[in-house]
Write a structure and sequence with these properties.
This protein is of the alpha+beta class. The chain is 23% helix and 34% strand. It contains four helices and twelve strands; from the N terminus they run αββββαβββαββββαβ. Strands 4, 5, 6, 7, 8, 9, 10 and 11 form an eight-stranded antiparallel beta sheet that branches. It has a two-stranded antiparallel ribbon with strand order 1-3. A hairpin with a 2-residue loop joins strand 8 and strand 9 (155-165). The longest helix is centred in the first third of the chain and has 15 residues, at 3-17. It is globular and about 45 Å long. The N and C termini lie far apart (49 Å).
Length: 217
């Protein structure tokens, strides 16, 4: 199987297995609060990126936080794969670096990509340790990883960014992730550039979500 075929199969499996349940039909959320003022313009943080306009809430996500969704983006809970083959293939796509994906926010209908929320399997892992394990957990070549501590809505948070090179395509992409602790869980929010998504497609929705983080009622 050649490289293009492998990439196509992987993409199809990802979209199929990560199709959750329950489209978000909640009323638009209010403006994000608590986010830091821009600190570092340009590469690698792009803090000058304006958060997207809010258009919904994260109610379908089974995590102990809430966050606003970008207009046109829809949240779905990730259902565990069923059947022997689904479990084997699904585990490779739903687990990474000691974390399990719990929710996906799909922005394709609005011209964006995906925002995914992961829960660390160990409740005692620190946000930075969870981020380090996540970045290294995909079998990609990781370079230029940076960290910073900041406020994300109502939480103290750690954020990281790194460049990843795929062993299949040898393409390099930039990734961003932010981790917080809430109700005994360490949660990791992730976005990345990809073969068909650029920074401008994913960062506005990511900025809106993490700057509007709040504890669930």
């Amino acid at each position: 199987m050649d490289t293009r075929t492998l990439v196509a199969v992987s993409t199809a499996l990802t979209l199929g297995l990560l199709a959750g349940c329950g489209d978000d039909a909640a009323a638009p959320a209010g403006p994000a609060a608590g986010g830091p003022a821009p600190q570092a313009t340009g590469e690698p943080w792009y803090d000058e990126t304006t958060p997207a306009s809010p258009g919904g809430t994260s109610s379908p996500c089974p995590v102990p936080v809430t966050f606003p969704l970008a207009d046109g983006w829809a949240a779905k809970a990730i259902e565990p794969p069923k059947g022997e083959l689904a479990e084997q293939v699904g585990e490779a796509l739903t687990k990474r670096g000691g974390s399990t994906v719990r929710c996906e926010v799909d922005g394709r209908s609005a011209g964006g990509g995906f925002l995914r929320i992961w829960a660390a399997d160990s409740p005692t892992v620190t946000p930075r340790a969870a981020l380090e394990s996540f970045a290294a957990g995909a079998g990609e070549t990781v370079a230029g990883q940076q960290f910073r501590d900041l406020r994300a809505g109502g939480f103290d948070a750690t954020e990281t960014t790194w460049l990843a090179t795929s062993p299949l395509t040898e393409e390099e992409s930039r990734n961003w992730a932010l981790a917080v602790q809430s109700a005994g869980q360490t949660l990791v929010f992730t976005v990345s550039e990809g073969l068909i998504t650029e920074r401008a497609d994913v960062l506005p929705a990511y900025r809106l979500a993490v700057r509007g983080l709040a504890k669930s009622e």
